UniProtKB/TrEMBL annotation:
<dbReference type="GO" id="GO:0005085">
    <property type="term" value="F:guanyl-nucleotide exchange factor activity"/>
</dbReference>
<feature type="domain" description="Ras-associating">
    <location>
        <begin position="642"/>
        <end position="727"/>
    </location>
</feature>
<dbReference type="InterPro" id="IPR000159">
    <property type="entry name" value="RA_dom"/>
</dbReference>
<protein>
    <submittedName>
        <fullName>RGL1 protein</fullName>
    </submittedName>
</protein>
<dbReference type="InterPro" id="IPR023578">
    <property type="entry name" value="Ras_GEF_dom_sf"/>
</dbReference>
<dbReference type="Pfam" id="PF00617">
    <property type="entry name" value="RasGEF"/>
</dbReference>
<dbReference type="InterPro" id="IPR001895">
    <property type="entry name" value="RASGEF_cat_dom"/>
</dbReference>
<feature type="compositionally biased region" description="Polar residues">
    <location>
        <begin position="538"/>
        <end position="548"/>
    </location>
</feature>
<dbReference type="InterPro" id="IPR008937">
    <property type="entry name" value="Ras-like_GEF"/>
</dbReference>
<feature type="region of interest" description="Disordered">
    <location>
        <begin position="524"/>
        <end position="548"/>
    </location>
</feature>
<dbReference type="GO" id="GO:0005886">
    <property type="term" value="C:plasma membrane"/>
</dbReference>
<feature type="domain" description="Ras-GEF">
    <location>
        <begin position="223"/>
        <end position="492"/>
    </location>
</feature>
<dbReference type="Pfam" id="PF00618">
    <property type="entry name" value="RasGEF_N"/>
</dbReference>
<feature type="compositionally biased region" description="Low complexity">
    <location>
        <begin position="591"/>
        <end position="611"/>
    </location>
</feature>
<dbReference type="Pfam" id="PF00788">
    <property type="entry name" value="RA"/>
</dbReference>
<dbReference type="InterPro" id="IPR036964">
    <property type="entry name" value="RASGEF_cat_dom_sf"/>
</dbReference>
<keyword id="KW-0344">Guanine-nucleotide releasing factor</keyword>
Length: 727
């Protein structure tokens, strides 16, 4: 089979990519061979005749909403077999369920008013049956893949409309019974909320329970593999409930608006659980002042072992949460405590941390995640023989149970990629047509999420109520509390005398672990000030992810651990910052967790745009760009192919509360200012009231003239950070 580019076909309201597929359908003996009585499959190539068939594959590239909905009925005939799944997974970015359902049923579902080509003009029983079969096929796929689209309590308008259509056009069908059952199911259920086990607020506790600081003895009573299994159980329950379209950049980036406080609840739930794990790690290490150095080191070792058990269970979400907590400033700065951690466990910690290395847009974790997604058990490799031996022993115990494992991903990676795609690619192209090529790119990420959700069905974990209740009761420390307790613990530890040899040995081990060098520079120990924004992504931006650090906060109880690095301090410093799922995540350029940083930091998200595949980018002026001319997606801090991404924050707000905005070499100040106002949910007509400035340094700014070209006027040798200031 061979494929050939067939160019484009343009219709009224739609543009299609055409591919010619050439398939060999028959191999027969030629005339001379037949005279000798030979058969085609028994003769050499020179004595055979091959017959080929060429078919045309049409894939819609852009179109009006009407054309996109109509294509649901014709895509199978055009050999675009994945179109229905792509449309259903992404249409919420440009249309509502009601709008799509009305078009499908009212305009195309009625034979007499249908505008389909060969069906529209035929008033025959056969054509009616064909149309009904197509409608039924689309509706069946919709109910199979996205039944949550019809959950609209208390009226269930779409579901009732669908039921009415089926009663009139497909009475007593299996489809009608299915919709009736779904309606009863929704009506009998309360609006789905986050499971109680993933919440740590006192309102979720059983009557009589109170939040408490962890008791070290009680925590130590839980076996490492039990803790890992229970964290995995909670993560699996939440990840399986994630609605894929909630992760779309155009959906997730709107969550900080007041009217959208309940937007994407399934994603928020995973963030809540991620942060709860991170906070639990910190509170168990620092919550008890009376702990001795060795006791505190044992707790750190226990969490490293739990992280390793999470790795065996292929739970990358809790694994990253634990690693991020151990890299937080309040834990990392416990130098004396880390000196008491055994060498083998430190090496294990280093190997686990390397999984989330930000090198090459987190290539290691991405490749490992996809490799693990289709494997029955974890693929464990260790450079340290003792760790390798322990890992294989634990893995063998899992295999002996005969139960396959799924894979729980770190959701932030997918959120980052989807928001970068949303930022880099236009929603509409020339003629106001919906850019469906963008949706195909987004579906590549959504499909990975669905694959991993499916794999989670392989887990067979039983909840341990004792641990879950303990986990829910934990009182989490604030940033100030954790830092104060960290200083107190280290001050107490300083009274102990360590031999010069042990000090030198630990300095070398810690420096190798975090720097890959023998130079050790402890982080600055000035108290950290609370920031109004969150962690590694801190903000309300248009790009990013979930991590112990990738969201800004709106509520004081949400806290996130964020590794921070900066050019002034080459050592990876870690900072605890408030976090809330309602804030927008951001992507970090060049592996830095701060807006100005250029270093790398484990447990943070680097600029995902830099690692995305090449693809066609619609030009601002020319609209559709042929797929034969691939371009690199624009990224932050780099001008390429006449475009780039800048970060714009509002004057008076923290610099990490920003919006990612795509600009081209055609954009002038009014255009960029208007888009920035829209992104910050301000009145776009107030362009004349604001000025746009680029931050050059702490004491220097570049102020743009009224009609300046931003792309050519900006300083490309510093970070692309801008401020929108009222005149």
């Amino acid at each position: 089979t061979t494929f050939q580019d067939g160019g484009e076909e343009v219709e009224d309201g739609a543009v299609y990519n055409v591919t010619l597929k050439k398939v060999q359908i028959q191999q027969a003996a030629n005339k001379g061979a037949r005279w000798l009585g030979g058969e085609g499959d028994q003769l050499p190539p020179e004595h055979t005749v091959r017959q080929y068939e060429t078919s045309k594959i049409r894939a819609i590239k852009a179109g009006t909403l009407e054309k996109l909905v109509e294509n649901l009925l014709t895509a199978f005939g055009d050999a675009d077999f994945s179109y229905i799944s792509i449309f259903l997974a992404t249409y919420r970015a440009f249309a509502s369920p009601r709008a799509v359902l009305e078009l499908l049923l009212d305009r195309f579902g009625n034979l007499e008013t249908s505008s389909q080509g060969e069906v529209a003009n035929l008033n025959s029983l056969e054509s009616e049956m064909v149309l009904r079969a197509e409608i039924a096929s689309v509706l069946r796929a919709w109910l199979d893949q996205c039944s949550e689209d019809f959950r609209e309590p208390p009226d269930y308008v779409c579901l009732l409309k669908l039921l009415d259509y089926l009663k009139n056009n497909m009475p007593n069908s299996d489809m009608e019974s299915r919709v009736q059952n779904l309606l009863k199911q929704f009506q009998n259920q309360e609006v789905e909320a986050v499971d109680g086990f993933c919440s740590t607020s006192s309102s979720e506790l059983v009557d009589g329970e109170e939040l408490e600081i962890s008791n070290p003895e009680e925590f130590s009573s839980f076996q490492d593999h039990v803790v890992a299994e229970q964290l995995t159980y909670m993560d699996v329950m939440l990840f399986r409930r994630v609605v894929p379209y909630h992760c779309l950049g155009s959906i997730w980036s709107q969550r900080d608006k007041k009217e959208n406080k309940n937007l994407a609840p399934t994603v928020r739930a995973t963030i809540t659980q991620f942060n709860a794990v991170t906070k639990c790690v910190i509170s168990t290490i620092l919550g008890t002042r009376e702990l001795k150095i060795q006791q505190r080191a044992k707790i750190i070792e226990k969490w490293i072992h739990i992280a390793h058990e999470c790795r065996i269970l292929k739970n990358f979400s809790s694994l990253r949460a634990i690693i991020s907590a151990l890299q937080s400033n309040s834990i990392y700065r416990l130098k004396t405590t880390w000196m008491c951690v055994s060498k083998d466990i430190l090496l294990m910690y280093e190997e686990l941390s390397e999984i989330f290395s930000d090198h090459d847009n987190y290539l290691t974790s991405r490749e490992l995640l996809m490799k693990e997604a289709t494997s029955k058990f974890a693929n464990l490799d260790s450079s340290e023989k003792e760790n390798q031996k322990k890992s294989q022993k634990r893995l063998q115990l899992q295999k002996n149970k005969g139960v396959m494992q799924g894979t729980v991903p770190y959701l932030g990676t997918f959120l980052t990629d989807l928001i970068m795609l949303d930022t880099a690619l236009q929603d509409y192209v020339e003629g106001g047509l919906i850019n469906f090529e963008k949706r195909r790119r987004e579906f590549e990420v959504i499909a990975q999420i669905k694959l991993l959700q499916s794999s989670c069905n392989s887990y067979c974990l039983i909840p341990d109520q004792k641990f879950i209740q303990w986990f829910r009761r934990q009182r989490h420390l604030t940033e100030e509390e954790s830092y104060r307790l960290s200083r107190e613990a280290e001050a107490a530890a300083d009274t102990n005398i360590l031999s010069p040899k042990s000090q030198k040995s630990m300095v070398k081990r810690i420096s190798i672990l975090f720097l890959g060098t023998d130079v050790f520079t402890p982080p600055k120990e000035q108290p950290l000030k609370s920031s109004p924004v969150g962690g590694s992504s801190g903000e309300s931006t248009d790009s990013a992810s979930v991590s112990s650090c990738e969201f800004n906060h709106s509520e004081t109880e949400d806290v996130c651990v964020t590794p921070i690095s900066s050019p002034e301090d080459p050592l990876k410093k870690v900072q605890l910052r408030p976090l809330h799922a309602a804030g927008r995540p951001k992507t970090l350029a060049q592996g830095s967790c701060s807006d100005k940083g250029s270093g790398s930091s484990k447990g943070s998200i680097s600029d995902p745009g830099s690692g995305l595949d090449s693809g066609s980018i619609p030009s601002r002026d020319s609209g559709l760009v042929p797929s034969s001319a691939p371009k690199v997606l624009p990224v932050y801090n780099q001008q390429s192919e006449g475009s780039c991404i800048i970060r714009v924050s509002m004057d008076g707000l923290h610099a990490s509360v920003y919006k990612s905005i795509l600009i081209t070499n055609q954009d002038r100040i009014p255009d960029v200012t208007q888009r920035a106002l829209l992104k910050h949910n301000l009145e776009p007509d107030a362009v004349e009231d604001y000025e746009l400035v680029q931050v050059i340094s702490e004491d220097k700014e570049l102020v743009f003239p009224r009609d300046a070209n931003v792309f050519y006027g900006m300083n490309s040798h510093v970070n692309f950070n801008f401020i929108l200031r009222k005149k």
